[in-house]
Amino acid sequence: MDKRKRTRLRAAGWTVGTPREFLGLSDEEAAFVEFKLALSKTLQALRAAQELSQVDVAKRLHSSQSRVAKMEASDPSVSVDLLVRSLFKLGAQPGDIAKALRPRRRVAAT
Amino acid sequence: MDKRKRTRLRAAGWTVGTPREFLGLSDEEAAFVEFKLALSKTLQALRAAQELSQVDVAKRLHSSQSRVAKMEASDPSVSVDLLVRSLFKLGAQPGDIAKALRPRRRVAAT
DNA sequence: TGCATGTATGTCCAATCGGACAGATAGTAC
DNA sequence: GTACTATCTGTCCGATTGGACATACATGCA
Questions:
Q1: CB contact under 8 A, A102 and B94
Q2: pLDDT digits (tens, 9 = 90+) for B26-85
Q3: Which amino acid residue lies closest to nucleotide D6, measuring CA to C1'?
Q4: Which nucleotide has the shortest C1'-to-CA distance from A62?
Q5: CB of B53 within 7 Å of some strand C atom
Q6: DSSP, residue by residue, A10-40
Q7: Quick one: pLDDT at residue A9?
Q8: How many CA atoms lie within 13 Å of B102's alpha carbon, on the beta-carbon side?
Q9: In this structure, what DSSP letter does residue A102 have?
Q10: Per-residue confidence band for B22, with pLDDT thresholds at 50, 70 and 90
Q11: How far apart are CA A43 and CA A1, in angstroms?
Q12: Domains and CATH numbers, chain A
């Protein structure tokens, strides 16, 4: 987005910026939600790799399908604890989790 | 500990083994407590590096000294969420956390 | 000795989390 | 069309968590 358009939008009362700016998140909060997101993605990937349904995973975790869906969606009602425990139960190794948390290479902003 | 002594102790009614065995933790549970422990240690290290008291840290986190003590002690009442949020608030980068989680090289058991 | 500082531990209660259920939506096969 | 499967979303209520407080313990210093 170029400066001109940005300015016009702001003048029209719009908030312009990144999702993080939009939501008014501080740096630490943003880092935390990204952290959770990385774990969610890892969980999804692990499930896909094992070709399981959410119901299957729920059984292994002694939980419910709806909670698994929320875990994968990084729902606010899901804690990092639950995500980490679940990853371990699905066979992830500590190293796998560490790997998943490494910050993605940043791509040039447009 | 040698085999002989181990056997004698068991005969005398003692449980012999790792803390994990002693507590009857499954692999995933053990992995999880180690995970938490790594975060606690990182928090302590971060505080030490900045030469802050627990009270100082508590202020930065908008929490209390007692909770900080429990975080560093990896108390059961402390969640991974709290630890991770705290680390970020103290300025840790995602990469730092990933690094802290990498499994330590195992040393020959005695 | 008393006093200050830093840390550890136990408890209380409000806030958050998590399993479970209901119901919605989407895709596929018959 | 119905039926089945997989996933998503909202809600409820018991369980866990977290800030706060009191208090104990340790160390250093005047």
A1: yes
A2: 778 889 999 999 999 999 999 999 999 999 999 999 999 999 999 999 999 999 999 999
A3: A53
A4: C19
A5: yes
A6: HHTT---S-HHHHHT--HHHHHHHHHHHHHH
A7: 45
A8: 8
A9: S
A10: low
A11: 34
A12: 26-101 (1.10.260.40)
